[in-house]
From TrEMBL:
<feature type="domain" description="HTH gntR-type">
    <location>
        <begin position="21"/>
        <end position="89"/>
    </location>
</feature>
<dbReference type="InterPro" id="IPR036390">
    <property type="entry name" value="WH_DNA-bd_sf"/>
</dbReference>
<dbReference type="Pfam" id="PF00392">
    <property type="entry name" value="GntR"/>
</dbReference>
<dbReference type="Pfam" id="PF07702">
    <property type="entry name" value="UTRA"/>
</dbReference>
<dbReference type="InterPro" id="IPR010248">
    <property type="entry name" value="His_ut_repres"/>
</dbReference>
<keyword id="KW-0238">DNA-binding</keyword>
<keyword id="KW-0804">Transcription</keyword>
<dbReference type="InterPro" id="IPR000524">
    <property type="entry name" value="Tscrpt_reg_HTH_GntR"/>
</dbReference>
<dbReference type="InterPro" id="IPR036388">
    <property type="entry name" value="WH-like_DNA-bd_sf"/>
</dbReference>
<protein>
    <recommendedName>
        <fullName>Histidine utilization repressor</fullName>
    </recommendedName>
</protein>
<dbReference type="InterPro" id="IPR050679">
    <property type="entry name" value="Bact_HTH_transcr_reg"/>
</dbReference>
<dbReference type="InterPro" id="IPR011663">
    <property type="entry name" value="UTRA"/>
</dbReference>
<keyword id="KW-0805">Transcription regulation</keyword>
<dbReference type="InterPro" id="IPR028978">
    <property type="entry name" value="Chorismate_lyase_/UTRA_dom_sf"/>
</dbReference>
Length: 251
């Protein structure tokens, strides 16, 4: 067993106590503690089943169940013929709420950065007019923004804005989240809706997100209102391996 693996197993074994908890659950908990503490990093290869069996003195069935359940829960990734690796933690957004992605990233203790790809003022097409509840040729802004979390591209934002409700939208500081702050100031959101779909990114979107063409993506179509007027219509695309939606319901 290589020294690095032996060191990983030594730390892992020290986390397994004598409590009456099932052994497979204690192995799971120990692995999660190593990951949460930062001892085991994302994309790092973890010891094999056989190495764990020998080092921990437990059955292969026990280790297999622990690794299988952690893989199903998205904590680990198992690649046939290659090994088991620590999964990258996915970014998540609240399904029932609307927040600025910059704020969500900051709450995780990470760094947000945005790049304005394109913005223009135009007259609404028939489709855009229907989505915003305005007449064709109504003045709008079209913007494309790429968001990053810790230097990794996390989301492409395509946004159409009712220019009459937000006349200075194109003058905002997109890099530092000024556009979101501006919208919430001039037309504070009173209502919103989400439509979530699984999609394949276009060739250009794959290039921006730095993903392969086979990577599944999540698409969120979002509209927001200020009182009875539609302010924005947005389409947000994120790599499925880096992003997830979360909802909590109670009744």
């Amino acid at each position: 067993m290589p020294d690095s693996t032996a060191n990983m197993m030594d730390h892992l074994s020290k986390l397994i106590d004598d409590s009456p908890t099932p052994i497979y659950a204690k192995v799971k908990q120990a692995i999660c503690q190593q990951i949460d503490s930062g001892e085991w990093q994302p994309d790092q290869r973890v010891p094999s089943e056989l190495e764990m069996v020998r080092a921990l003195g437990v059955s292969r069935m026990t280790v297999n169940r622990a690794l299988r359940e952690l893989t199903a829960e998205g904590v680990l990734i198992r690649q046939q013929g290659v090994g088991t690796f620590v999964a990258r933690k996915k970014t998540h957004s609240a399904l029932s709420e609307v927040h600025a992605i910059a704020d969500e990233i900051a709450q995780r203790g990470h760094i947000h950065k945005a790049k304005l790809i394109d913005i223009c003022q135009a007259k609404a097409s028939m489709e855009e007019a229907m989505e915003l509840g305005v007449r064709t040729n109504h003045r709008i802004f079209r913007a494309t923004i790429l968001h990053f979390e810790n230097e990794a591209p996390i989301q492409i934002e395509y946004r159409v804005v009712n220019a009459e409700l937000a006349p200075d939208y194109d003058q905002q500081d997109f890099q530092n989240n000024g556009a979101y702050t501006y919208l919430m100031t001039v037309a504070p959101m009173t209502e919103g809706e989400h439509l979530v779909e699984a999609v394949n990114a276009s060739e250009k979107e794959c290039e921006l997100l730095q993903i392969s063409a086979s990577e599944p993506c999540l698409q969120i179509k979002r509209r927001t209102w200020c009182k009875e007027k539609l302010v924005t219509n947005a389409r947000l695309i994120s790599p499925g391996s880096r992003f997830q939606l979360f909802g909590h319901f109670k009744q």
